[in-house]
Amino acid sequence: MRIKVNNKEVSVSEGEKLIEILRREGFNVPSLCYAKGKKHQASCMVCVVKNCETEQIIPSCSTLAIKGMAIDSESDGVKDLRRQSLELLLSDHMAVCRPPCNPKNCALQNHAKEYRAKWNKFPRYSAIKATPPQHVKDNLWFDVMKCIRCGLCVYNSNDGFTFQNRGFGMQVVLPVESVKNVDEALWGICPTQALYRIEN
Ligand code: SF4
Ligand code: FES
């Protein structure tokens, strides 16, 4: 079937996600809570695009293509909305990353730079109590203060990571009894350096 992306007619398969179509066609779409092939729930809203027929703003990571639809992912309006989503995430995130953060490995920092998102656009507020990083095992660490609650580790962990509390106080926890069995592959899907390694 065919759809239009940024005024370009493209052929797509039934059930393809808009984010994958756009990226394949060479359009840059940021994402934080999405990783191809992994379980996820659209929560960060940095991947939004506009459905030109309905004027609705939709997350491209969880919307499937429908025959004949027309999508705008490049207009200033769409990019402004992405910037606002990033600024909301930054308002609830530590302003100065603590070591060993490396911007090269942080999608949040990279997108914030690309979209010129300001760290102080909204009043800074975090309901998460200042907490030191948790040593998980071997060279694996978890820093809840850098977590943006994207959920990737929670939805892709068999019985390790879980969400605790609701609303502003919601946070990811790794129960002590799960530490031994935790899946190391999760360290590769975290979009910030909340899950990080200290190499010797
Ligand atoms: S620890 Fe990383 S992967 Fe897990 S919810 Fe936080 S930001 Fe997402
Ligand atoms: S990447 Fe689509 S909502 Fe987060």
Spatial gap, N to C terminus: 51 Å
The SSE order reads EEHEEEHHEEHEEE
Shape: globular
Q: What spatial order of strands do you see in the largest sheet?
A: 2-1-5-3-4
Largest sheet: 5 strands, mixed
User: Number of helix segments?
Assistant: 4
Report on the structure:
- By secondary structure, the chain is an alpha+beta fold.
- The relative contact order is 0.15.
- It has four helices and ten strands; from the N terminus they run ββαβββααββαβββ.
- It is globular.
- A hairpin with a 4-residue loop joins strand 3 and strand 4 (56-59).
- It has a five-stranded mixed sheet with strand order 2-1-5-3-4, covered by helices on one side. It has a three-stranded antiparallel sheet with strand order 6-7-10, with no helix packed on it.
- The site of iron/sulfur cluster has 14 residues, from helix 4.
What is this entry, summarized?
The chain has four helices and ten strands. It is an alpha+beta fold.
Outline the secondary-structure elements.
Blueprint: E1 2-5, E2 8-11, H1 18-24, E3 48-51, E4 56-59, E5 70-72, H2 76-91, H3 107-114, E6 134-137, E7 140-142, H4 152-155, E8 162-164, E9 171-173, E10 195-197
Parallel strand pairs: 1-5
Antiparallel strand pairs: 1-2, 3-4, 3-5, 6-7, 7-10, 8-9
